[in-house]
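#struct-help
A.M.: can someone run this one for me? Single chain, 407 residues.
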Amino acid sequence: MQRVLVVEDSKVVQQVLRHLTAQYLDVAVDFAWSLAECQEHVEKYDYSLALVDLTLPDAPNGEVAKYTLSKAIPTVVLTSKIDEYKRQQMLEDGVVDYVIKDNRDSYHYAVKLVSQLLRNQGCKALIADDSMLSRSLMKQMLEKQLFDVTTANDGQQALEILKADPDIKLLMTDYAMPTMDGFELVKAVRNFRGRDDLAVIGLSGAGKHGLSARFIKYGANDFLTKPFMNEEFHCRVLQTMEQLSLIADIKESAFRDHLTGLYNRRYFYQYAEKLLKNQNQNNTLALLDVDFFKNINDTFGHEGGDQALKQVGSLIRSTFANFTVARVGGEEFAIVLPDIDLARAREYLEAFRKKMASYDFSISDKSCTITASIGLAEFQNTNLKDAMRVADKALYEAKSKGRNCIG
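D.P.: on it. Structure tokens below:
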């Protein structure tokens, strides 16, 4: 579980940071006023990241950052002033980044920086470079940003690694490499991984005119010239990954039902169609329809109906957490159970039907019972239209039998 420690002695600044972390971070956040309190927290918990003030009453010379770094906690520093010597010293000590506290936007930047670093944790990155020294240096820098880093010593090896591991989200590739250069690698990668799925940053030595434009035209998201400053490296990587995260958020939002938070009909049809291409397993489709939903709307109004759908959606999601669940109509939900035959699926859905029928739903502060009719269809090597037709027929049979049953 991710956890963040914020160390700040100013009441005003800490209040701002409390507000922003609550807004942007979906993780546990602890606050400390001093080095002593910071040490107490670190003894109790394991932290993914620390955001610390450089100057504290009991640690006026950056001792708190040195302490968190000594405990192997990636650290971002907050400071009200900085000079070149202190900047260089902090970077040599190993801080991920520093933020100058000169306006309110600085705190937004700091918290959003922490948010992106947390998203990087466990994210896979690949470095392709024929220089062992460069690979080692960049690996250390990416690990500071919480990436899980793999390296390759030429483009061909990098290409094979990327084909074998679709979870890699960042590729940093040098231009001049044996076997396959950076341009050829990027062109080959873009044949099966798009810009919104894999971020690519090109690298090359100084004096190579036009390489940056060519890298980007071939499919790179950004470019860095060697030798680069640590800060530039971190900023470029963080900015590139932030763009990738924003695209992922937009795509995720487009596939979600606004009311229940479940996947929507559009995503369901795309996902189910992919499953249909697998001819080596039996899959089951369940269609679930809330019984007498019109009566709920008539009794409690449309706001009450929305409350009911949210609670039903939440119950389905928690029960079938390992499966894909979607809201495909007004009060109709779909559950896809891959590699599960009809008999096992019927057992799962019957247990859920009983659970739902005995569940205490609350609509407009009134307790009520909600049931559902369910239709099942087993499919293998078929098309979605046919699978939906079978499930719909089974759902109609469940309703004709009196509802609150499986057809």
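A.M.: thanks! Residues 159 and 322 are 32 Å apart (CA to CA).
D.P.: also worth noting: The longest strand covers residues 283-290.
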